[in-house]
Amino acid sequence: MVEAAAPAAPAPKPGLLKRLALPLILLLGGAAAGAAGAYFMPALIPASHEKKPPAPKVAPLEYVEIPNSFTANLKDTGRFVQVKIAISTQGGETVTEAVKRHQIAIVAAVLDILADTTEADLSNPGGREKLTRQMRLAINDVLQRKSGIAGVDDVFLTSFVMQ
Question: Which regions span the lipid bilayer (predicted)?
Fold first, then answer.
């Protein structure tokens, strides 16, 4: 007779440790990644609650008119030039007071520039802009030497006569 094969013994079930090993490893890896992210993320993203330093306060633009009328002979000709000037500054009251306080030195510096100017300098395109630039540099130099500040932003010719 043919003997019937005895049913094979069922395979033993894997132990509890083997069944939980993969999920346990994934859980620990996720926790480690979360902890690392929480530790390093604040350094990568600036906090929104941090106060930004306030922008430096800029004084409003102020104009100061120099009351003198500057008259000087042009270099190498018999002609003369007469100008009146005003300055602009965003340096506030400190600069405007310094301009008023050192007005005599500013007048002398502007007259030196006018005395060193030729008719060709003023007749050329851009000659007046070059003249006002030289005046601005000279006025700032006077203010820097006399009061330690140089805050004149621009010089304007409010009157200009050349004869």
Answer: 20-41
Buried b vs exposed e over 26-51: b needs ≥16 C-beta within 10 Å?
Answer: eeeeeeeeeeeeeeeeeeeeeeeeee
pLDDT of residue 35: 85
Contacts of residue 128, defined as CB under 8 A and 6 or more positions apart, other chains included, come to: 122, 157, 160
Q: Which tokens hold the place of 99?
A: 């301009």
Read off the tokens for 119: 């008719």
* Cβ–Cβ < 8 Å for 162, 70: no
Three-state DSSP class for residue 37: helix
Burial class (CB in 10 A: 0-12, 13-18, 19+), 106: buried
Question: Mean pLDDT throughout 78-106?
Answer: 93
pTM: 0.64
CB neighbours of 153 closer than 8 A, spacing ≥ 6? Answer: 61, 87, 88, 89, 90, 91, 136
Between CA 45 and CA 35 the distance in angstroms is 16
Token pair 């330690």 in the structure block, residue: 148
Mean pLDDT across the chain: 85
